[in-house]
Write a structure and sequence with these properties.
single chain; alpha/beta; Rossmann fold; 7-stranded mixed beta sheet; two-stranded antiparallel ribbon; 5 helices; 18% strand
């Protein structure tokens, strides 16, 4: 079973939402858990968890990977996502059960390879999570996309100087999701490479806050 660092809701008490961070290739859960502290004011009732990916990283064995990225071919990357998906799905189910939360209280936040996992797994979940926020990533597969109107809210953020995953990958993902009838918000961070700047952080926190509020209204209607 996957596991990693976690933060309790900043406001105390049982969580009303769950935000799961999915780190990039060659990192681990500690790489993103600090975003929970950055978003404490926006999401005071959310629990945050950042699981370590299941495999040792081929390029840095002390770090982790969701799947092998060294081959680089998108067809092989899609296969890697498929192999890693069941473990992540099981983890998400267990975490929602742990906190006694509905699917609509889940938000997925990915970076780089973690964005590939967040999109593939989050879009395949039924019922859908409230939101997916993807930083500096790509859409690895268009299989199992939800029907229009039944998917999560999606925000994609990418630096225009990303030397690892070019910004074109985000633009392509945006087009593919839009063609499937899925609404996507997006932001290109000017002058930013393979990373997350302050504006990207602000946008992500605000997006999750709005998505959770909208999901709660739908649940109550």
């Amino acid at each position: 079973m996957l596991d990693g660092p976690r933060l309790d809701p900043p406001a105390g008490g049982p969580p009303r939402q769950l935000v799961v961070f999915l780190h990039g290739y060659g990192a681990d859960g500690n790489d993103l858990i600090g975003l929970g502290r950055e978003w404490a004011q926006s999401l005071p009732h959310a629990a945050f968890v950042s699981p370590n990916a299941p495999e040792p990283c081929g390029m840095a064995p002390m770090s982790r990977q969701w799947f092998d990225l060294s081959l680089g071919d998108m067809a092989l990357i899609a296969e890697g996502v498929k192999r890693a998906a069941p473990a992540l799905q099981a983890f998400l189910n267990a975490e929602l059960k742990r906190y006694e939360l509905p699917a609509s209280a889940l938000g997925l936040v990915g970076f780089s390879q973690g964005t590939m996992m967040a999109l593939a797994v989050g879009l395949a979940r039924k019922p859908a999570p409230a939101a997916i926020v993807g930083y500096s990533g790509a859409l690895a597969t268009v299989e199992a996309l939800p029907m229009p109107g039944s998917g999560p809210d999606i925000l994609l953020v990418h630096g225009d100087r990303d030397e690892v995953i070019p910004v074109d990958a985000m633009l392509m993902a945006r087009e593919q999701l839009a063609q499937a009838g899925l609404p996507v918000e997006w932001h290109v961070a000017e002058g930013i490479g393979h990373g997350i700047d302050g504006e990207g952080l602000r946008l992500g926190g605000a997006f999750l806050k709005h998505a959770f509020a909208t999901a709660q209204l739908r649940q109550g209607s």
